[in-house]
Automatic annotation (TrEMBL):
Natural source organism: Lentzea cavernae
Gene: rpoE
Family: Belongs to the sigma-70 factor family. ECF subfamily.
Domain RNA polymerase sigma-70 region: 20-89, 122-168
Swiss-Prot/TrEMBL keywords: DNA-binding, Sigma factor, Transcription, Transcription regulation
One Pfam family, short name: Sigma70_r4
Protein name (Swiss-Prot/TrEMBL): RNA polymerase sigma factor SigL
């Protein structure tokens, strides 16, 4: 095709686009809107796709308005039908209203650690267990725990060190 042929084809394409948008866009939008159950976004997509297909097939289209209208409506209806079929083929999308429901943290590791620690603490002597209880469970300082237990602060520190060393070793052995 020569330069004049390309210019003539471009001019015909411009005329077709002007005709399509000028005469058929509103009509097509209102008809497709009914087919899409009044989903405006989907309707706009279908109308745009229909007009793009008309432009792509411009060489084969009969430019008479009655023929163009029928062709556009048929193409739009087929695009909507394809859309309905593809929506039925995949699972329906559901909007997640509460994101905290979607995620449930995996507490398995923490639960196992608690079980191991509980088991190890049961195996500790009463003195070591008391030191752990007063400081970690009751939240007392070493000085306060020493007063409650009736032992020197150094003894509480020593018992805590040995108890924590035993617990850490047990956790490492079970990991």
């Amino acid at each position: 095709m020569g330069d004049q042929g390309k210019v003539a084809q471009a001019h015909q394409d411009e005329e077709l686009l002007a005709l399509l948008y000028g005469q058929f866009q509103r009509m097509l939008f209102s008809q497709v809107l009914c087919l899409t159950n009044y989903d405006r976004q989907w309707t706009e997509d279908v109308v745009q796709e229909t007009l793009i297909r008309a432009w792509q097939n411009s060489a084969n289209l009969v430019r008479e308005p009655g023929m163009l209208r029928g062709w556009l409506c048929t193409v739009a209806r087929r695009i909507v039908i394809d859309g309905w079929r593809s929506r039925q083929a995949r699972p329906q999308e559901v909007e997640l209203l509460r994101p905290d429901i979607a995620e449930s943290p995996d507490d398995t590791e923490q639960t196992l650690s608690v079980m191991v620690i509980t088991d190890v603490v049961r195996q500790l002597s009463d003195e070591h267990r008391s030191a752990i209880y007063e400081t970690y469970v009751m939240g007392r300082t070493v000085k306060e725990a020493a007063i409650v237990l009736g032992v020197p602060e150094g003894t509480v520190k020593s018992r805590l060190y040995k108890a924590m060393h035993t617990i850490r070793r047990a956790l490492q052995d079970r990991s």
